[in-house]
Amino acid sequence: MTISFEEHTITPLSINMRLVLLASCENTYGGILPWAKNSQHQIAQKSSIKSRKAAAVRLGSAIGFLREKYTATANKHGILFLQHMLPYVDILLATGECVCRGDPHCFAFDANRFNKKHDLHIPNICAYSLATDGCEDMSSFSYNIVAKFERVKHISSVKSFVSGLTIFYQPEHAGGNVQTTYINQGLEVTFRDLSVERHTLQEFPKEIEGHHFEMVPAVFSHPHDFSKGVTEVLSYTLPNGVNVQYDGIKAVKINNDALSSETPRCGICGNDDGIYDEQDILLGGNVDGIFCPGLPANGTRMEVAKNKEQFVNSWFIYSTGEMCDEICPFEFN
C-alpha cells in the first residue's frame, strides 16, 4: 500500500487571504477577528517554533468555530471561507505534540489528532524509537525516547499498547556515558540505579542530575489523549527541555518545543516541521533486516517509507521479551 500526501504551503498570501475571509464574517463573529490577527502576526513575524505553534492552534480554533457555524447556516461567506481554509485545517490544528494512546493509536508531532487519516495504528510488539535526534546514525544521539509495545491480552484481535518507556540521554560532557530512565505501568520510575517508588511521586517535583520529575494535571488537547479517568500524569523533563508525559496505563505524550530549530527530529513521531507530509515517515535504522529480519523495511535510512507498516518496523530498537524474540531473534538485536 502506497501512501500519498497532499502538499500544502503556508505563505503570507494564504494567511492574508484567511484574514480577509475572516473579516467578511466580522459583523457576526467579531470576537474571532482580533484573535486571528494576533495569530497571523505571530506566524508572519517568524517567531519561535513554540509561538508559531500556539498561534496556529488559536487560528485553527477560529476555523473550527466558523466551520461549525457556517455548516449550520450555509452562509455564502462561510462557504467561501471554508473552500479556502479546509485544506489548511490539518496543518493548523497540529499541536506539536506526539501522542501514542489506546491500542495504540499514534499521532506524529505534525498530525491533526482529529483526522483519522493521520492515525498511525501500531499493532506491533517490541521496542521502537518514538522521538530522537539520532537521525543519520542510530548510535549518535543526545536523546532517544523508546516505547515498549506489548500485546493486549485476552482478546482475539491483534492489538498492542505502550506498556512503558525507556528514555536514553547522553550529555555532551558525559564522555559517552548514557543516562537511562525507565517508566513502566503503575508509574514505576527508575533513573540509572535510583528507584523512585510509586508512593513517593506525590513528593515531587524531584530533580536528579538535571532530570525533572513531577505529577501534573492531565491536559486533554484531544478527548482521548490519556486513558479514561486519568486526572494526573507523570511529567518527565530531560535536561535538554524535551518533555515526556505518561499516564501509567498506556498513553504517552511528547513535546520537544524546547529544542533548537537546528536539532534533527525523527522517529515514529516524525520530523516536527509543522506540516504532516511524507517527510514524517522517513525510514529508521532497521532497514533490510539489519537488526530484525522479522520486521521488514526496504530502502535506505532517512528515505520515505513505502508504507506505514515498513515505517514503523524501521524504528525497531530492541527485543522486549519472549513474544518479541520470536519475531526478532536475540542474535539480531
TrEMBL record:
It comes from the Eukaryota. Residues 96-325 form the VWFD domain. This is VWFD domain-containing protein.
